[in-house]
Design brief:
Layout lengths: L6 E8 L2 E8 L2 E8 L2 E7 L12 E3 L16 E6 L5 E8 L5 E3 L13 E5 L8 E7 L11 E9 L2 E3 L5 H20 L3 H17 L4 H12 L6 H15 L27
Antiparallel strand pairs: 1-2, 2-3, 3-4, 5-6, 6-7, 7-8, 9-10, 10-11, 11-12
Length: 268
């Protein structure tokens, strides 16, 4: 890369690997090299330098060197898009020099979900991946529901494991305060969005489906709706009651997939 005019901006060394970040004008690249050669290659743009591929890629300072707790140092890679939204990946390099990005898995996540931060949410000494979940299929008047959920690291990658009580409580309190203001202002779109988010927080916390529906109903109780809005609210309520499925059986998520049993599903 240096021969092609790139400047090295970052260097990280670990157990059997070297991670390097480069810049050339408005182009960015990351390479991870092990005994097998280049095992990770990420570029901000296609070879023509015009079409964007991954966006701005870099090697942020990790909160700790061993991110997955296996006793070996890991690589933390960041990708920032044009809007400034950050996506983080933890790359594990095994003793044989093979690289693997720890997957973000679980039935609560839509395809393409990624972590925006790694942090110890509940103070238990474990890092959680903060993942933004969005449900554009459940939007009303352009208001797209979404919550930020912390995932725990397992041998298979980052997975949902309920919400820490403190996180669920603070997120719920903030939305209930916003809901009160939205209802006073007769803002239907925001009220419905907040109702979906309150139901989603209950679902991610492991509450029964009936409790999720009750949260949604309570958020909209007494709110006067136009005919079109009322029909849309009925569709959303049915999706929640059916295990976050649309009434026609299609999953009401970005990926369109609802794996697992109805009562065990989490929204995407």
């Amino acid at each position: 890369l240096r021969e092609a005019g790139w400047t090295r901006t970052q260097r990280r060394t670990g157990d059997g690997f070297v991670a390097l970040a480069f810049e050339r004008g408005e182009q960015y690249a990351v390479r991870v090299v092990s005994r097998r050669g280049v095992v990770v290659a990420l570029d901000s743009h296609e070879p023509d330098g015009l079409r964007e591929r991954h966006g701005r890629v870099s090697l942020p300072e990790p909160p700790r060197s061993d991110l997955d707790g296996d006793g070996r140092e890991d690589v933390l890679v960041a990708r920032d898009d044009a809007t400034g939204e950050r996506c983080l990946a933890v790359v594990r390099v095994d003793p044989e020099g093979r690289a693997e990005a720890l997957p973000i898995a679980g039935d609560a996540l839509a395809t393409g979900a990624c972590a925006s931060a790694l942090t110890d949410v509940d103070g238990d000494g474990r890092l959680e991946a903060m993942v933004s979940l969005r449900w554009p299929q459940l939007a009303v008047r352009g208001e797209v529901p979404g919550v930020d959920a912390p995932l725990v690291l397992t041998a298979e990658g980052w997975r949902p494991d309920g919400l820490p009580a403190s996180h669920e409580a603070s997120e719920t309190e903030a939305r209930r305060a916003a809901l009160e203001a939205a209802r006073e202002g007769l803002d239907v779109g925001v009220s419905v969005r907040l109702g979906v988010e309150l139901a989603a927080l209950a679902h991610l916390s492991g509450a029964a489906m009936s409790a999720q529906v009750e949260r949604f109903d309570a958020a909209l109780e007494g709110l006067v709706l136009e005919e079109a809005d009322a029909a849309r609210v009925a569709e959303i309520r049915a999706a929640i009651a059916l295990g976050w499925r649309a009434p026609d059986g299609a999953c009401a998520t970005e990926s369109g997939s609802c794996d697992g049993e109805e009562e065990e599903r989490r929204p995407r």
